[in-house]
């Protein structure tokens, strides 16, 4: 019976925030904070979201769509309606200022106050007795010129001059704001909305009305960022993950920018169904997570790590991978690749060899096959859940953790499986080398001569097992020597497949570039450097060393300018394609090369120029030659 479930439904990203998902909070001041949607208000298992030295619960954010704007309150994150921006609209602030001024006037007359924010109104009313507000100051300034014009109108007619507003008379002496710090703290302690506090600060500023429009906008924006902070829920993707980590501390990821990450994935040809070998110990696992997300669970990503376990699992888990994507990621220790093959074989025989049968037995795989799912609860576990635990939330949390634990056991690869997977890639390369180079005529039909000892048949009709094939891409981003690392990992890469090396500095990649250009393999070690260039077996082709220059531009209505604070460097990339160790050589002799160059015109068209000049002379193109021929005739 065929399944009716569309496999693409497992790859679709949910539009809303789910429980236990990681997400990003983008603030208006370019801050970015990682957070997790915890289903409980208080939980010891999950860390809280910390903003401005205060902790906030994220249980009320579950179910909200990505892109929702939140306002940071005193005790919680308040979701705002759809259409709100990170910076509030200035028209709302202006309207609140007018309402506060009206409520202040009615309070001075002794009538009843209609403003709901009594604290802000009282503060504004107190300041009116001591220092005039910006509205009264502006009114007095307008009345005085009017009186002068009335007195002078009897003598002569004057042309009214346009009032020029600039910042030449502003003095930063901390006396323009009539609200004291104690009064502002009083508003904050009474949980007054941030918009009300911003409106009170503007209405009690004696110099706000005398500022230019741009200065007023900057003043309002600065106060909104301080007293009315907002953030947006953003989905974690390879681009947003790299941007957030680069903004936090670029040195930890070797200055890897999001544009450089895109070039690495594109040049490595990362797509569904590929087998990718990744070494990204220098960039905290960002490239590994990006490869898994781009492949969508189809294929496999072999990620090498140093130590007892990967040190950047928290970064990879922030991508909220599905079960299919987690199965595609396989962690392999450095010792499986860089260790001694004979020592690994002896270790395997010593640990896993059965004494009775003399065969290698995978104990972990045998235990995994014995696990049945769904697994029934043990009697003591059932008794604990029914008698001791009476809270339904705790029971649900216990069962979900148990299900996740069994999922890891059933999908985890054993050490012997990973070792066979890595050694299989190496065996294919050794079979290539054992076959030796072929002649120029036989290189077109690789694999037809099946009698060669050690030769592997590789034609279109050959069915190579999926587990023993080589990798389709190789990505290296490590602080170790890139030259030695590449030469050690190239045997695991299939011929005609790309490799990409990322490094923070240029000099190590230059050394690798020169090594690959001059690196060759000769059959007879006695020949040495006397082997002609056309008969050398190179290991790579199409080498390119690139870097990118990235700048963000601000485009507004009527004005455009680049961002003045940008990163200086986003790293360097070395690209190349591996040649086949068996057929990756040009065995054409030097005499044949000379004949071809003579036929096509040599270098830079020298032959063509000589031939055209000869034909011109033969056709009588010169004037003096024509006169000589005419006299002779």
UniProtKB/TrEMBL annotation:
Subcellular localization(s) per the UniProt record: Nucleus
Basic and acidic residues bias spans: 589-598, 624-633
Stored InterPro entries: TRM6 (IPR017423)
Annotated spans, Disordered: 98-169, 584-633
Compositionally biased region (Basic residues): 600-614
Cellular component GO terms, alphabetical: nucleus; tRNA (m1A) methyltransferase complex
Entry keywords, A to Z: Nucleus, tRNA processing
Superkingdom, natural source: Eukaryota
Span of the signal peptide: none
GO BP terms: tRNA methylation
PANTHER family per record: TRANSLATION INITIATION FACTOR EIF3-RELATED (PTHR12945), TRNA (ADENINE(58)-N(1))-METHYLTRANSFERASE NON-CATALYTIC SUBUNIT TRM6 (PTHR12945:SF0)
Family: Belongs to the TRM6/GCD10 family.
Protein name (database record): tRNA (adenine(58)-N(1))-methyltransferase non-catalytic subunit TRM6
Biological source species: Skeletonema marinoi
Organism phylogeny: Eukaryota, Sar, Stramenopiles, Ochrophyta, Bacillariophyta
């Amino acid at each position: 019976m065929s399944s009716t479930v569309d496999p693409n439904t497992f790859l679709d990203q949910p539009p809303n925030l789910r429980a236990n998902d990681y997400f990003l909070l983008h603030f208006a001041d370019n801050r970015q904070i990682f957070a997790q949607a915890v289903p409980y208000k208080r939980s010891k298992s999950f860390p809280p979201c910390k903003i401005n030295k205060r902790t906030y619960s994220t249980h009320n954010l579950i179910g909200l769509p990505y892109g929702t704007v939140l306002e940071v309150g005193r005790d919680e994150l308040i979701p705002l309606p759809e259409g709100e921006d990170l910076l509030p609209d200035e028209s709302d602030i202006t309207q609140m200022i007018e309402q506060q001024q009206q409520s202040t006037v009615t309070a001075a007359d002794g009538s009843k106050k209609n403003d709901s924010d009594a604290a802000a109104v009282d503060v504004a009313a107190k300041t009116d007795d001591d220092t005039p507000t910006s509205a009264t100051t502006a009114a007095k300034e307008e009345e005085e010129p009017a009186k002068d014009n009335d007195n002078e109108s009897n003598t002569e007619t004057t042309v009214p001059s346009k009032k020029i507003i600039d910042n030449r008379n502003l003095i930063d002496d901390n006396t323009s704001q009539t609200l004291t710090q104690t009064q502002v703290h009083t508003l904050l302690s009474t949980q007054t909305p941030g918009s009300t506090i911003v409106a009170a600060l503007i209405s009690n500023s004696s110099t706000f009305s005398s500022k230019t429009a741009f200065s007023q906008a900057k003043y309002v924006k600065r106060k909104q960022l301080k007293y009315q902070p907002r953030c947006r829920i953003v989905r974690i993707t390879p681009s947003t993950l790299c941007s957030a980590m680069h903004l936090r501390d670029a040195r930890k990821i070797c200055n890897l920018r999001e544009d450089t990450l895109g070039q690495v994935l594109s040049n490595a040809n990362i797509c569904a169904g590929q087998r990718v070998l990744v070494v990204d110990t220098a960039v905290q696992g960002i490239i590994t997570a990006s490869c898994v997300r781009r492949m969508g669970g189809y294929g496999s990503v072999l990620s090498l790590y140093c130590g007892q376990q990967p040190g950047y699992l928290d970064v990879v888990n922030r991508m909220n991978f599905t079960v299919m994507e987690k199965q595609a990621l396989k962690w392999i220790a450095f010792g499986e690749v860089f260790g001694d093959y004979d020592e690994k074989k002896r270790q395997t025989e010593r640990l896993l060899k059965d004494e009775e049968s003399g065969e290698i037995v995978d104990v972990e795989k045998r235990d995994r096959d014995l696990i049945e799912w769904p697994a029934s609860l043990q009697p003591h576990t059932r008794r604990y859940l029914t008698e001791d635990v009476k809270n339904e939330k705790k029971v649900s949390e216990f069962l979900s953790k148990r299900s996740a634990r069994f999922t890891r056991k059933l999908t985890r690869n054993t050490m012997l499986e990973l070792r066979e997977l890595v050694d299989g890639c190496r065996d294919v390369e050794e079979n290539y080398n054992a076959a030796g180079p072929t002649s120029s005529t036989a290189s077109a039909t690789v694999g037809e001569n099946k009698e060669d000892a050690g030769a592997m048949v590789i034609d279109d009709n050959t069915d190579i097992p999926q587990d023993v094939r080589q990798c389709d891409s190789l990505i290296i981003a490590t602080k170790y020597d890139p030259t030695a690392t590449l030469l050690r990992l190239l045997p695991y890469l299939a011929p005609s497949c790309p490799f990409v090396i990322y490094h923070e500095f240029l000099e190590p990649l230059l050394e690798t570039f020169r090594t690959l250009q001059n690196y060759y393999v000769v059959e007879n070690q006695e020949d040495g450097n006397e082997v002609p260039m056309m008969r050398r077996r190179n290991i790579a082709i199409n080498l390119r060393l690139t870097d990118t220059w990235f700048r963000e531009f601000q485009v507004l209505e009527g004005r455009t300018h680049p961002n003045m604070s940008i990163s200086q460097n986003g790293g360097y990339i070395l690209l190349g394609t591996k040649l086949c160790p068996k057929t990756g050589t040009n065995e054409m002799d030097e005499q044949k090369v000379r004949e071809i160059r003579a036929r096509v015109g040599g270098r830079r068209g020298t032959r063509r120029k000589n031939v055209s000049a000869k034909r011109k002379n033969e056709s009588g193109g010169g004037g003096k030659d024509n006169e000589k021929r005419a006299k002779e005739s």
